[in-house]
Each structure stands twice: as structure tokens, then as C-alpha cells.
Amino acid sequence: MSASSEARAHPPLGDAVYLLRRNPITLAGIALIALIALAGVAAPLIAPASPLATDPSAAFQPPSVRHLMGTDEFGEDIWSRVLWGARVDLTIAFGAVAIALVLGCALGAAAGFSGRWTDELVMRGMDVLQAFPSFILAMGIAAALGPSLRNLIISVALINVAVYARLMRTRLLVVKQALYATAARGAGNPPWRVLVVHLIPNCLTPIFVQSSLQSGYAILTAAGLSFIGLGVRVPTPEWGVMVAMGVARITIGAWWVSFFPGMCIGLAVMAFNLIGDGLSDLLDPQRR
Amino acid sequence: MLTVDDLRVTLRTRQGAVPALHGVTMTLAEGAVTGLVGESGCGKTLTALAIMRLLPAPGEISGGHVWLDGRDLLTLRDRAMDRVRGAEIAMIFQQPRASLNPVFPIAFQLIHVLRLHRGLSARAARAEGEALLARVGLPRPDAVMRAYPHHLSGGMCQRVMIALALACRSRVLVADEPTTALDVTVQLQIVELLRGLQRELGLTILLITHDLGLVAEICDHVNVMYAGRIVESAPVSRLFRRPAHPYTRGLMASRVRSGSRALPVGIPGRVPELAQMPTGCPFHPRCPLVGPECVERDAVPELVEDGHVVRCHRWRSGAA
Q: Contact A90/A36 with Cβ under 8 angstroms?
């Protein structure tokens, strides 16, 4: 096989477009997340009302032209709140995953690369983290830190650190033995540079796939925490809180209060899972 | 210029420390190709990795010196050794594709090395990288720069590895079975490339191989290795004309020769396990000339003639 025909001259972006066309499911996931993100960003422009504007006279209005998704017990416009909620929930998803990813990868890399007591220390720490049912742990951390958006993100992040640390360590133990690692040392790279430049990039594919799945779970966990009152507080337009607010009202027939934010949670989680499906194809040069 | 003196390597196993190299001594003449031949499991690669101080985990250097321009590489600090690797001694491996990082295009790896070792700007490094790829005989260097290792054939990857070694301008190249994993036709091209570069740049090359044909082709001097020892060392023409050690003779007889109807003979038995090293001369269970002294003690290197050293009690009795 000749390289000249294989190594075609196309820009990296062209690659991505081509690959996405082959993975319509991933494309759908990315499109959906992009749409949600756009809704969040554009919320001030497209939301018909302020998400915090109450109007007691218009409580529990069913969906109508005036209130696309109806109103809740305070007469807040649910459509506006859902749009603003996209902001909050995506912040939680990306924030929590980013923190967990960076922390987990750093710990896992340290453990896998240096081995011995560092490895023992880090991994036993991760064992402790994983010994708790993750939601219970998140509840504990959130309760200890107090309910706020920042603390919600931190507690959702902390329960996932171990997942990334393990993935990174396991991958690293494999690629550490690779000949290119020895070759890189042979070319005069000190160990830390071999780790950062050559080894870690070879460990990232499964980690990114995992993080797209985890983004979905992060929204679920955050929604769950908010639902039981340990996440963000009630007036904040967050989908989980909104579901919680509406649950008690389903019995009086006001299904829309919970339904629409709940649907958004479902869509976002599904979208992240769809992305994860094709992400490994996108990231691994050997599978292109 | 590069001298290996009584290099000893031990493998730490569950059965305790097992010696793997029993005092390897050899000299790489400046600007020449020195061969290191022997069967699999003789310790050739171990020798190379020990010289580079890249021995993997159970291996440990337990004695000896590696002199490069008056410095003992084995006593250098780790940081200093990092500056020697690549810049003064480069190494290429048996599996060229596995030696390249699979997630980066060639350009990234080549430019990285050029910027690091030669302090070139990104633009200059790219130009120099393409020039190097052209230098090692790769057509369309610009396309190769953009390719990932899995886009390239084994021979092309080996050329890239050689380009990477040249990129650092090191004068010593350790080539561990550089052609073994390649097609026969490609083998010859790589050998010619190495030979050409050696002549042109005055490279000092340590060529590790089990292929005597390759040795005859490009080496100036040959060291024959058996069970962690250099058993014979001679200029290449001398070694092929008058091999002294019975192991070397066995290797010669194992070759398939064109034009000869004689079947290759081979050496009975196989390389001893490290943990079950025979007493005395490690070759004695397989040796046609074996005598009582061979079982009792290992031989010491003896001078056959200037530049030709053999490590055998009975080399005189069987000389052809």
C-alpha cells in the first residue's frame, strides 16, 4: 500500500465532517446538544418572559399559545424557564465532567505512571470513593457543602473522579509498555515528557467516550439532587427542580409542570449517549 | 569511540537475581558498522537497551561501563542521560510501526524532535523534517508528513525512524534488528540506506541482527554473542573466512547458500534458559568440540590474531 494515495491532503475538519456523515447517530447527538446549548445561550433573546417573573393570577395554566408549556404554581412561564434551564443544566454537565476528567486523569496518570506507593495511595483512595453508592455519596457531599449551583457541580464531579482515574490508569499501564514509549525515551525525552506528550494522548479515546456518557449521568444526578432539595434552590430554573416542583401537582391534573423539564432531561441525556456511541471512531486515527 | 566494558545485566525474577549478560565487552570503531549477531535469546537486544539505559523493569545493570567519549554512560545522572539519548546515541527498533506514536501524524513527531533537539522554529522544523524524509528515500515527503503511522508500510516506518534518528544529529546509531520485520526486498533497501548514511555522515552503527547475510553485506567488524557473552569478535572478512569459535562455525553452517546444494546444517539443541545456565562454557552441551575442561570452567577471551578474539578452550583443535 502506498502512502501517497493513503495520506490524502485533507484538512482535519474535512475528516470530521466525513466521519460524522458515516455516523448519523453521533451527528444527531451533537446536533441535539448544540440545539440545547443554543437555546441556553439565546434564552434572554427568545424566552418570552423572565424565568423568575411570577404572576399568581396565572398559576397552573395549561399549555397554550400564550404559555407554550403552561405555567407553574407561581404563574412562571415554563417555556421560558426550560430555556434558561438549558443554561444551568449544561453548565452542570460540562462543569462536573470537566472537573472530574481533569482531576481523575491527573490522579490516574500519576498512579499508573509512577506505580508503587503512589499507585496504592491513589487507587485505595478511589476505592473509598467508589465504596459508597454514588448517589448517596453525592447526597452526602452536597449536604455537607450546602445547596448551591457550585456545590452541586462539585459533588457531581467528585463521585465520578474514580471512574476517570481508573480508566486512565488502566490504559496507561498498557501503553506504558508500548515500543513508542521506549523509542521516545530513546530520542532523549525525559519521563514526564513521554507521559504528557506520548502516553496520555494515547489514553484519551476511552476517556472522552466515557465523559460523553457521564455528561448525561451528570444531568441526571444533578436533577436528582435538586429534586430532593440538595441541589440548586427552588426559584432557579433548573430542570430537576422544576420536575420536583411539579410532581405534587400531577394529581390535580397539572402534568405539564413536570413533563416539559423532564422531557428536556431525557433528551439531553439521550443526546450525550448518542455522541458517546460514535466518538471513538472520531477520535482514534486508526479507526478512520 | 563507544566502548562497552564488562557490561553485566541481571534480571530480578521470583527465583532471585538471574544474570543475563555476563560481562559483555566490545568496541564500536568510529565511523564503522559493528555487528552483533547470535540466536534469539542470546542477549543482543538486552545489550542494546543496557547501552541506552532503557532496560525494562526486571532488567538491571549490575556492573561494567559504557564509555562514550571518555564518559561512563552508566554513571551519568538520569537528566544527563536524557541529553545523551537522541543527541549522541539514537536507537531504531525491530518493529518500526510500533515505535511510532499511533495517534499523531509523522509531522508532529518529527517536528517535535527537531524543535526539541535542534531548537528550530516550527517553520524551519517542518522544512527540515521534509528534507530528512527525502534524505531517507521517502517519495513525497509532504504526504508522509501528514500520514499517520498506520498509513505507512513497515519499510516506510523504518525510514521515518531513521529520519528521526538523523534529526537529532547523533553520531552513534544502535539498530536493533532494523530489517527483521520487513519484506526481503525492503530489507535490502533499508540496508543500503543505512550503509549510505553511514558512509556519508560518518555514523557509528551498532547493528544487531541474526542475519549473517546482512552482516556480510554491511558490517566492518562482527561480535558473535552467545548466552550473554561475546564469544568471538573479528573483522567481517576474517570471521567469514576463518571462524574460530564452534558456535560461529555452527552459525555459518546454518546458512542457506545460493549455488550450493548442501543443506544447511544447523546447531543441535537450543540457547540455554537463563535460569538453567550450564556449568563452564555455556555452549558445551551443543558443542561438537566439547572436552572435559569445557564443562568445568568458562573460557577466557584469547587472541587469535590482531583484532580477532575468541572465547573457547578448544578453538585450535577444530579450526578449518
A: yes
Query: What is the ipTM, given to two decimal places?
Result: 0.85
Length of chain B: 320
Which CATH architecture does the domain made up of A32-287 adopt? Orthogonal Bundle (1.10)
Q: Nearest Cβ partner of B147 from A7, A197, A198?
A: A7
- Backbone Cα Rg of chain B: 20
Query: Contact B91/A183, CB-based, under 8 Å?
Result: yes
Residue A217's identity, in one-letter code, is: Y
Q: Quick one: three-class SS letters along B36-82?
A: EECCCCCCHHHHHHHHHCCCCCCEEEEEEEEEECCEEHHHCCHHHHH
Neighbour count for residue A132 (Cβ, 10 Å): 14
- Work out whether the CA dihedral A248, A249, A252, A256 comes out positive or negative: negative
Is B208's Cβ below 8 Å from some Cβ in A? no
pLDDT for residue A61 is more than 50: yes
Cell numbers placing A210: 466515557
- Fold for the domain defined by B2-88+170-318: Rossmann fold (3.40.50)
Within 8 A of A186 by CB-CB distance, chain B residues are 52, 54, 85-86, 90-91
pTM: 0.81
